[in-house]
Fold each of these.
Amino acid sequence: MAALSLTIMPLKGTAMRLLASLLGAALLAVAAPSASRAAETLRVGTECTYFPFNYRTDAGELAGYDVDVAREIGARIGADIAFVCQEWKGMIPALLAGKFDLIVASMSITTERQEKIDFSAPYRVSIGQFVAARDLNLTLFDADGALMPAALEGVRIGLERASTYESWLKAKAPGADVAYYDSNEAMYLDLKAGRVDAIMTNPMKAYLSFISKPDGAGFEVVGPQLEEEAYFGAGVGVGLRKGHDDLKARIDAALKAMTEDGALAEFGLRHFPFTIHPQAWKGAS
Amino acid sequence: MGALTGWLDEFAWGAFLILRVFLVAAAFTLVFGVVGAAARLSGGVWARLAGVYVTVFRGTPELLVLLLFYFGGAVTLTALARLADPGAGFVDIPPFWAGALAIALIAGAYATETFRGAFLGVAPGQIEAARALGLAPWAILLFVRLPQAWRIALPSLGNHLIGLMKDTALVSVIGLNEIMFTAKMATSVTGQPFTMFAAVAVIYLAFTTALSAALAAAERRARRHLAR
């Protein structure tokens, strides 16, 4: 009997320790309030998989435009920034559940999202722009930045079917010669092949998947960045839970300063040959 | 393949993570399955409760349960903590435990039915024979019913465990850096999705192959007295 109980005891001890540590973990989870109430650490949710806006390098460092913007906001409002990698699907639920305090993840400001969360003023634009071969020397806009429909004479324009760019061009130049595409890739190929003279699209996308690649050598963005909100949307903002108007005001003040002193321009130029922030401060939404 | 080299350490950590999630979840799956099956077989209110458990967790998508557990759990715990202490801060559920428990609850619902079916599948003649031999009820359970039920349950339980292994690919939605997430991060920087997702497939295949071999060995052992 003694031998038996001896062999059982250590087993029992292990089981007890396991149970105790499980209980301990559960209690710890319940007892540990997060640091958010200490106010000066802001946890920022971002995807970590959206190059070049928020991504992780193979050295494990977070980088990208969103990351730069979030860190700079932290520096300017005097808060420490802690990033949390969160898959896109769960981004808004995670914010609402308090897993982090801000979303800085290239999230476009939409009325649908504004029903659930608040947004800062935009720190990145949603824009449209023409792309064409450099040696075509297209001039489509007058000195005030308005499209000259007459300049489109004899210029075949590639557009993604049913896109915001189509609505914009139809409104501004109803008579334009347009070819429609179902995918951006087919549109780039035809631009390269000369079947269309110019395309109108999102310049960031066009730069990342075409202009910066060998296939896109000799092509560039043409004319001004078109920021009209009615067509292209309000842009990308910092998301936060409703009811934090004070924090929102501090972030908007920081973004205003960053727009005006060139910090946003510098962050954009790290990844693109053009800036990607609103050219003029539009004020908080 | 050169693009992979910088990411090998990340993949290794991700693989270690899914292994840990799997081991913890598999242990809970067995517990939920055994307790659930015992409850369903017991009759009465416990059987009805276990029936609700099976219906709910077998009938909802894994992703939904995972999100409900993680986000809903944190909100609920915070609300409860504030009931006790209005000044309480945000109460979180560690994503590892939320993830492992959520997928274990689902696999456990399936395992409940597997164990119940296996227990009922032991030939009645076996039990009658045991009674005729004068075995006590506990001895019948321990030496006659359970070993045979285990043998009947194993192939189906193996399916659930392999499914559980693959469910670990879901946990990145609650912020755990498993290998699907690693692959997405690496793809975003290198622009080579095929290489990265092929690496994920190789890792999962390695794990599921090892698991299948272990299950086959367990089946051989459970049937060793039947070998010719």
Amino acid sequence: MTVSLRGTREVKESYQLVRLTGLLDAFSEPTFKKVLTKLVDDGPKNIVLDLSKIDFVDSSGLGSLVLLFKKIQTDQGSLQIVTNSRVTQTMKMVHLEQFFSLHTTVESAVEKIKA
Amino acid sequence: MDRFPANAHNTQPARYEFVLTNRVDDLTRLSEWINDLANQLQISAKGVFRVELILEEAVTNIINYAYVDNEEHTIRVTLLYLDQTLTVELRDDGIPFDPLQRPEVQLPKTLEEATEGGLGIHLIRSYVDECHYQREADSNVLTLKILNWQ
């Protein structure tokens, strides 16, 4: 089976850091949604999602990010997204960047959670 | 990858073809193909991103909406490239499905308005200079053109 999205997870005291590489598209999106939903349920509810090494995100991936963001808000957590120019550009094309908390570094995202 | 290079006078476009099935895991092969091809043509990262996105969105639409059975189908992607103009043709044997007839999505003004779907055709329209659909015999043919692809 082809694997287009890979990830690692580090659990800290007040947040968890999820780093992803590869493609967040219509193929990987169902797995992304399932796994991230479980991670949020397991806690901590504050998530730093590192997409800086993502090669590509399409509208399916963006849709999953919207759902994830809404879930985390409902669960009274926080989603901080570390992005790159490709991901940010796609978000801007559909006006989603205004809702997400975007960062260029993991350190900046972690600081936001601790603030 | 089949390649039919341009003739000596470069009046005919170079032609590249890729065939995939209507399984979403074939999107990964599609991504690899377009990245390899763009690298071969020395296309910029921005140009690669642009065509990869429209291909993924267009093929995903076909997979999601053009088939009413559970059979395996073939989707044929043809690229024509001449003088920095890229013409993308996607041909499938699904039911008549014109993605360009889908209503223009209202971009969200609030997070509550943001939805999980419906953004793909907006992204396609945003990244191409021309788009056209026609039904040919039993096939859908979607043609997308990018000017100044480099």
